[in-house]
Amino acid sequence: MSGYLKRILKRDSGSMLGLDISSTSVKLLELSRSGGAFRVESHGLELLPENAVVEKSINDVTAVGEAISRLVSHCNTRVKSAAVAVAGSAVITKTIEMPAELDDDELESRFRSLSGQHIPFPLEDVLFDLEVQGPAPQSEGQVEVLLAACRRENVEMRSEALAIGGLHARVVDIESNCMQRAFGLIEEQFREDQVIAIIDIGATTTTLSVLPCSGIPYSREQIFGGKQLSEEIQRRYGLSLEEAALAKRENDLPDDYETEVLQPFKEAVIGQVIRSLQFFQSGNTGNEVGHIVLTGGTASISGLAERVTASLGLPCSIANPFRNMAMSPDVSVIKLAKDAPAMMIACGLALRRFD
pTM of whole model > 0.90? Predict the structure, then answer.
């Protein structure tokens, strides 16, 4: 890689997997397209060892790489290139102004000379990307340039893990971008004048993304996720964390699980959702949320969407970006439907192939 974050914003083509590395698993998705119709060619999910990824940062690159290798083998894909993502909290994005007459190389050179004004890290520790957005409305002869910058280690460790798994990292994206791209597959389900709140409940982080009818999307992260349910299962039933995560996923738990463990966790989820929306509404009084969409592995918990609706008085649905897609004969429709809410970021990454 050169000085660019190759490339958060670059258009690309050719066969490419979407590979989402989260705190507890690696998810793979391969899409093809004929005309305007997408088809799922392969998909899969591989659980990671405990602490292999901590707060979305790779802690054990070998363990992650080996999980990727197993996943690629299970999915039986021949594609060797992949798009991966870094968390939005790991990326600095801002719009800066530069002279309109500069070409790409000159833009990079100018940014390097001024980087200390825009990023709080030494330039040698950072990978960055620049993309011209258009003329600066308030400055004649200037253009607005979107900057995306990330610590080099965040990108290089993902590239190294993919290499161990037999893949090449062709594109690096931002998780929030992927979520919005995947949402484009389901947005027709909602009215154009609705403000949509996407609540992504991951393993350790819950992210609220609000898509207003106009203006800039809103995003906020909280430390809360499905791992807390796994840890309670681990504590109550004497399992390892990996065993607890697998038992939760396979719904292979004692009879008292529903009342003693799952119901209190659902109430905790409701509390997080309420707090997130209250925080948004306090600063965005002109945008009343009209519909909630749940994503992430925790979203597939039975009855959770109905519980959100009952508590907040807002319609709530579970994201499934594959609803209108064809399936390869090798794809399990039942398994994909179960995994669909957790595959939104992987889907957004796989869609980069068609930009």
Answer: no
For 240, how many CA atoms within 13 A lie in the half-sphere containing its CB? Answer: 7
Radius of gyration for the alpha carbons in the chain, expressed in angstroms and rounded: 21
Tell me how far CA of residue 38 lies from CA of 27, 41, 321, 354, in angstroms. Answer: 19, 9, 11, 10
Q: How many other C-beta atoms can be found within 10 angstroms of the C-beta atom of residue 139?
A: 13
Pair of tokens at residue 288: 């009343």
Give the bridge partners for 149, in sequence order: 92, 128
How far apart, in Å, are the Cα atoms of 69 and each of 46, 81, 239, 346?
10, 13, 26, 17
CB 22 within 8 A of CB 203: yes
Angle between helices 227-237 and 241-250 (to 10 degrees): 110
Question: What pLDDT, in 10s, does the model give residues 3-14?
Answer: 334 444 344 446
**What does the pLDDT look like over 278-298, one tens digit per residue?**
888 887 767 789 999 999 989
Residue 163 in tokens = 């290499």
> Phi and psi for 25 in degrees, rounded to 5?
-155, 165
**Integer Cα distance of 170 and 151 in angstroms:** 18
